[in-house]
Specification:
single chain; 421 residues; mainly alpha; Receptor-associated Protein; three-stranded antiparallel sheet; 16 helices; 5% strand; flat; membrane; Type II secretory pathway protein; cell inner membrane; transport; T2SS_GspF_dom
């Protein structure tokens, strides 16, 4: 029966999506009852339907034209998690205020600047109008509204607290994006400095060193060892710069390709990154914070623990922690307590396990998980700030040794010539 219902819902959503794809966006102008000129946009199958709808609203249609599409970016920019968080907050506020869901979707869609997200919301609204529940309609876009999001919405619908759950989901997504942004910020600065240092070095080796090399050859001066090394490196780069670029680009693409295609390779890279000094500590704490926050949100929404862990496994941001959560799910399915299953993974600190055990005993697991999440989110923020303060002097040293050493090596023969004059 459940399978038949799911199949029926899927067909209904598919039919609604096919129907929506036939709609065209029109720009219209019309005169209202006072003779005032009005303008707006409307989706319809044809211009006649737009005019009929305007007349139904008491307006006199003047012009109805199909909305022109831009050559570039016609479908709109990518929908970001922050967009989904803002949408969740908006619809939660409207539902709490008593605005019907279909009307709330229409209001939010009309206020969207991102054409792609606007079209998504229109399709979801149409599916809801066709009889689908919200979590079923969100299944039209499983990338933007992942399994975890849909499970939380389903739990909220079942418990009759959808507005509260959506508000909680918005807070959750905002916190997760905040953690990601902090980690990216910590890594972006040193990576960009190293890239700039590499480009400066290549420019020196390709264009500056050959000029000095010609000067040294004309002066017939014997080159010191550091200068000879730089000259040899310059000759190598001039001869094989294309091979170097090919190796670098090929290595990056190969890394991405094998990480996506090979689970073992992805697992190896993830374990390696978790063991890196400083960086590994941040990634570990980030994974624990995301695990605790996600499980706390799902459990608070009323999702059964086994189902919650199934959704949480993909939200930790780590293959290693994701596999550990799946192992915990299997242990709990056969009757083990959460704290015991966590202990078996050997990934979670004793404090996290103990707080989980207290939460289970006291019947306040979600509250304890939120406390763990808050603690580790603060730890991540502190670790990121510490990393930034440690990297700044280290980067200066690297730049000084790399670029400064190269410049000094080029001037050593000049100093030698000046000493013989």
């Amino acid at each position: 029966m459940a399978t038949a219902t799911a199949t029926k819902n899927a067909r209904a959503i598919g039919a609604a999506r096919a129907e929506i794809s036939k709609l065209v966006q029109y720009d219209w102008t019309a005169l209202d009852k006072r003779g005032k000129r009005m303008k707006g946009e409307m989706q319809a199958k044809n211009a006649a339907m737009v005019k009929a709808e305007l007349r139904r609203q008491g307006m006199n249609p003047q012009t109805v034209r199909e909305k022109s599409k831009p050559i570039f970016g016609a479908s709109g920019s990518r929908v970001k998690p922050r967009d989904v968080a803002i949408f969740s907050r908006q619809i939660a506020a409207m539902m709490a205020a008593g605005v019907p869901m279909v009307q709330a979707f229409e209001i939010i869609a009309n206020g969207q600047k991102n054409a792609r997200f606007k079209n998504m919301l229109v399709e979801i609204r149409q599916a809801i109008e066709g009889g689908s529940s919200l979590h079923e309609a969100l299944g039209l876009y499983p990338v933007e509204f992942d399994e975890l999001y849909r499970n939380l919405v389903h739990a909220g619908e079942s418990a009759g607290v959808l507005d509260t759950v959506l508000d909680t989901v918005a807070t959750y997504k905002e916190r997760m994006e905040s953690i990601k942004a902090k980690i990216k910020k910590a890594l972006f600065y040193p990576i960009m400095i190293l890239v700039v240092a590499f480009l400066v070095s290549m420019i020196l080796l390709l264009f500056v060193v050959p000029v000095f090399q010609q000067t040294f050859a004309e002066a017939k001066v014997e080159l010191p060892a550091p200068t000879q090394f730089i000259v040899s490196a310059s000759k190598f780069v001039q001869a094989y710069w294309w091979a170097m670029i090919g190796i670098i680009v090929g290595s990056v693409f190969a890394l991405i390709f094998f990480k996506k295609r090979s689970l073992k390779f992805a697992h190896f890279l993830d374990r390696l990154s978790l063991k890196l000094p400083v960086i590994g500590d941040i990634l570990n704490k980030s994974a624990i914070a995301r695990f605790a926050r996600t499980l706390g949100v799902t459990f608070h929404a009323g999702v059964p623990l086994v189902e919650a862990l199934d959704a949480v496994s993909g939200a930790t941001g780590s293959v290693v922690y994701g596999d550990a959560v799946k192992q915990m799910r299997d242990d709990i399915a056969v009757g083990h307590q959460l704290q015991l299953a966590m202990r078996q993974t050997n990934l979670f600190p004793n404090m996290v396990v103990q707080m989980t055990a207290i939460g289970e005993e006291a019947g306040s697991l979600d509250h304890m998980l939120f406390k763990v999440a808050e603690f580790y989110e603060e730890e991540v923020e502190t670790a990121v700030d510490t990393l930034a303060s440690l990297l700044e002097p280290l980067i200066m040293v690297v730049l000084g040794v790399l670029v400064g050493g190269m410049v000094i090596s080029l001037y050593l023969p000049i100093f030698k010539l000046a000493g013989t004059v």
